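Hi R.,

Here's the chain you asked about this morning:
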Amino acid sequence: MIALQKRPVETDRVEQMISGVVRQLESIGQADITSDQIGTLVMEGLARLDDVAYVRYASVYKDFRATQDFENFIETEKLQPELDGSNKARPSGKEEE
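And the predicted structure, written out as tokens:
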């Protein structure tokens, strides 16, 4: 996944996130799944893995056009750098697992 290139995220965690997205899609029980449903699930998964990958993906998914779009997204999602130096995202309302 391009959003995760050169990010310090273990391959196992990425594979678990992808498997989780697939399971969620399968549990919907519909023959047709929209790209919006997939995009939302991927964003949720990336938010739990890595804040930079999350913002990278969001910039394409939400079609950011200017630096203000990035700033607004980061402010809205309340992304904060971790004191321990990790890159774990904590968007508003989401707790670390």
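The chain is about 55% helix and 0% strand.

Let me know if you need anything else.
M.
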